[in-house]
Specification:
This protein is α/β, with parallel strands linked by helices. It has a single domain, classed as Metallo-beta-lactamase, Chain A (4-Layer Sandwich). Helix content is 23%, strand content 17%. β1 and β2 form a beta hairpin. α7 packs antiparallel against α8. The longest helix is centred in the first third of the chain and has 12 residues.
């Protein structure tokens, strides 16, 4: 049996607000993040990811409670384009008249040009993995999406940087703020075993690599985990699982990165020994 990097329940943040200006909201199987101080008002905050289709009303209500009635975000930033992270982006972008930003390598999946490679239901050994063959793979047609600045700057968030963390998807990004060592990892690393319906239901804490059933390049995923571990974060907000804070973040993330092949990479599977190719008729290029 593989070793598991379990997280102590006492270390898991129980409140939706993690710092003065970072809050998360769990929406069934996935998290979204809101960055901005309470009562920031209209255009005074930024939304990270948009959850599943149909989640827009929950996000709108959460935003109103935190930022005030009618408070729209300055922007919506997508960590990547998988269905559980972009399900409500079109509805929210239209209602809020907000620009949407993503890495250029994600644009084919967000602008109607390509579908993601097929899921790998044989990895992970859980119900969520087994039913992944029916998960939507896109594309969606979000024509007015904007490329993130190549400098790493995050629009409307001057003290944050975006980091390219591919593997789970070609243009996956994470967000980092050095002053409080806060890391928003998307799905590059997560804090529950997303392949298991039971773990997702009870939010059992465990430092994990990306959800295996949608990860298309395990070499790149390992490199991304190492990149994030090298930041030595103190706060980790992942796309799946509860946020964690304190010394355990650095300890467990470092252990995951150091033994990624043993702890995260499946023993067998569609993409274990080579990255996804072809990609909707085009060769998938591993990001350099």
């Amino acid at each position: 049996m593989r070793e598991r990097l379990l997280l102590r329940p006492a270390s898991i943040a129980s409140q939706s607000a993690l710092t003065g200006d970072v809050a998360y909201l769990r929406l069934f199987i996935v998290n979204i993040v809101m960055i901005g101080r309470p009562e920031a008002g209209d255009r005074g905050w930024v939304l990270i990811d948009t959850g599943l289709t149909g989640a827009s009303k929950f996000i709108e209500r959460a935003a109103e409670r935190r930022f005030g009635a009618g408070a729209r975000p300055a922007a919506i930033i997508l960590t990547h384009g998988h269905f559980d992270h972009i399900g409500s982006v079109q509805a929210l972008a239209k209602k809020w008249d907000a620009p949407v930003y993503a890495h250029p390598l994600e644009l084919p999946y967000l602008q109607g040009q390509a579908s993601y490679p097929p899921a790998d239901p044989q990895v992970g050994g859980g119900l969520m993995a087994w039913i992944s063959k029916i998960y939507p793979r896109g594309p969606i047609d979000l024509r007015e999406i904007v490329e993130l600045p190549p400098s790493g700057a995050v629009p409307f968030l001057s003290d944050w940087r975006w980091i390219h963390t591919p593997g789970h998807s070609p243009g996956h990004i994470s967000l980092w703020r050095v002053r409080d060592r806060c890391l928003i990892s998307g799905d590059a690393v997560i804090t529950t075993r997303q392949e298991s319906a039971w773990a997702v239901l009870v939010q059992r804490g465990e430092m994990k690599g990306p959800p295996a059933y949608f990860t298309i390049d395990w070499v790149a995923a390992a490199a991304s985990a190492a990149t994030l571990a090298a930041l030595h974060p103190d706060i980790l907000v992942a796309g799946h699982g509860r946020p964690i804070q304190g010394p355990e973040v650095e300890e467990k993330l470092g252990a995951l990165a150091e033994r990624f092949a043993l702890l995260a990479v499946p023993e067998r599977g569609r993409y274990v020994f080579r990255p996804a190719t072809p990609l909707n008729g085009e060769a998938y290029q591993r990001p350099r």
